[in-house]
Amino acid sequence: MDEPIITSVKIENKNRTNQTQIDAKKATEKIMAGELYGVLATQNNGHPYTSLMAYGYSSDLKKIVFITPKTTRKYQFLEACNNVAFQVDNRPKIIKSIMTIESLTATGTAYKVDANKKEYNYLRSLLLSKHHYLEYSSSSPSSALYCIKVKHLFHVVRLQEVSVITP
After folding, report:
1. In a domain? residue 2
2. Coil, strand or helix at 39
């Protein structure tokens, strides 16, 4: 898995008169809390694949959880290769300025959560707290609950200013 080529930084916002700085961790928490869906990037035999996903996350930003039916391509790809990326952004339906959009990409490893393990109910509750309508499918034997162990979070503002967060 790639390592970041930059270190964690706070980005100075020169457009504000008081020269305040953006706190990347707070901005990341706001994006994760404010959005319902993200894009999961998987791979298979060197080919990338993306999927729109409902997600939940831990307050320390170390875990992102989602479910998938076991009959999907994404499930097969996750079983074959656990290196993933997960992207969330806050773009509005009507964009007044592309410079206001913030994006977050989490990189890490995904693992299927065993329903018999202690962490299962906790991780499932993270997902259901945002997506209560997934109650039935998240408990179905034909679905799998996955957790991404986040290694790095890349927060991007104004298209090119990047902060790296290591939770």
Report:
1. no
2. strand
Q: Could you list the residue range(s) of the whole structural domain that residue 71 is in?
A: 11-165
Q: What is the CATH number of the domain that holds 157?
A: 2.30.110.10
C-alpha 154/C-alpha 36 separation (Å) is 18
Whole-angstrom distance, CA of residue 164 vs CA of residue 167: 10
Residue with tokens 């008169």: 17
User: Which of these ranges, 9-13, 43-47, 69-73, 83-87, has the smallest mean pLDDT?
Assistant: 9-13
How far is it, in rounded angstroms, from Cα 100 to Cα 68? 32
Look at the block and give the residue holding tokens 């992207």.
87
Is position 88 within any domain?
A: yes
- Which amino acid, one-letter code, is at 147? C
Which pTM was predicted?
0.82
Task: Look at residue 141 and give its three-state secondary structure.
Answer: coil
